[in-house]
Structure formats: structure tokens, C-alpha cells
Amino acid sequence: MENNEIKYPDLSGADAKEIALEAVRILDTRKARDIKLLRVEEQTIIAEYFVICGGSSSTQIKSMAGEVEFKLSMCGNPARGLDGYTEGKWVVIDFGSVMVHIFNAENREFYKLEKFWADAEEIDISSILTE
Description:
The chain is an alpha+beta fold and about 130 residues long.
């Protein structure tokens, strides 16, 4: 009998960076634009890492949010909260130590999270991006 079950990495005991990197990989497969990974643990108590990216439409943004939420849950890290999904302009997914921000172009330019958190360390993710 053939086993067609999809295997997800077990990240239930993973540190925040591993979870953030998996979120980056998932977003990359969904064609997220300009993905950034910021280490913000020295700037705030709300998270250790922010993943920030953009989408070209509310449909794509919702799709990316759903994919990250589902796949990280399958890896043993269910989301603690999700906001902005209905509008699909800026979706925030809270994984505890990792916050994923998915923006449309207008809101990303307006809120400028990368500039707001300019003191945070930007993690080089170029080796895991496919584009």
C-alpha cells in the first residue's frame, strides 16, 4: 500500500528562529514579495522575530496567511491569533515568539514596519529563497 501522506517537519520543540525560517520558506513558495526576517527580541517583548512580506492582492495575501497558519500548525506550532484576514490588506499571525506580517503594497508603504524596527537585526534569508 502506498503512503501519500504529506510529511511536515516537527517544529514543536523548535526555537523561534527555526519557526521564523519555516514561515519564510512557506511564504516563499506562495510567491510572497520582498520577504524580510527581523530579530526584534532586544527591541520588544511581544516577539523574538518578525517576518514581513507583501502580496499582490487580497486573495494572495489571504492564501499566504492560510498556508502559513496551516503548515506551521501541522509542524506543531499552531497560531495563537490572527488579525486582518477578512480585509486582506494587512494580516498579522501570532505564533508567540514569531509574528508574521503580510501586507498589500499600500499598507506596507504606509506603516513601514522595517523602518519602525530599524534597530532590529535583519537576518540574511537569501540562501533559502527560491527567487
